[in-house]
Design a protein that fits this description.
The chain is an alpha/beta fold and 151 residues long. It contains five helices and seven strands; from the N terminus they run βαβαββαβαββα. Helices cover 29% and strands 33% of the residues. A seven-stranded mixed β-sheet has the order 3-2-1-4-5-7-6, with helices on both faces. The longest helix has 13 residues, at 35-47.
């Protein structure tokens, strides 16, 4: 029954495998600024008979969700594309439940790459702590948690 959020799913490269995972009664909310990307995502989801993706057009800086509704959230190569990443991180903190996790994946080949050092500073400013990172500095995954929950 967990609710998971992906910000910037595009056509679903990551959303489709997540929605295909065993999530009994779970839901993947997908928010993207581009309606066309959400249409492509939902077309691909329909072909795979996935009914647990809830698409919403919206901005990461003003997430259209209530407080504390998601058990987890993730962004893959998206944070650097957001016009105000600090605001987006604060919004993600707002919509995550206490104890929820935020996963951010970055690859240096992305022109909007966010370094681990920059992410750590932004995360701390938004009330997160980096719990762990995996992978080299040029292609990493970082897991963030509410500062209070990590203490």
């Amino acid at each position: 029954g967990e609710r998971i959020l992906e910000v910037g799913p595009g056509a679903g490269v990551n959303a489709l495998p997540v929605a295909s995972a065993p999530l009994p009664d779970g839901v993947l909310a997908a928010v993207d600024v581009q309606r066309e990307m959400l249409g492509a995502l939902m077309g691909r989801a329909a072909r795979r008979r996935l009914g647990n993706i809830l698409p919403t057009q919206g901005d990461a800086g003003r997430l259209p969700y209530a407080d504390r509704v998601f058990a987890a959230a993730y962004l893959v190569g998206v944070l650097g594309e957001v016009p105000d990443p600090h605001r987006a991180l604060r919004e993600l903190r707002r919509v995550l439940q206490p104890g929820g996790r935020l996963v951010i994946v970055e690859l240096v080949i992305d022109p909007d790459f966010v370094s681990q050092r920059s992410l750590k500073l932004m995360a701390e400013r938004a009330g997160f702590v980096v719990v762990r990172t995996q992978g080299p500095a040029l292609a990493y995954m970082a897991v963030l948690a509410h500062r209070e929950a990590a203490a």
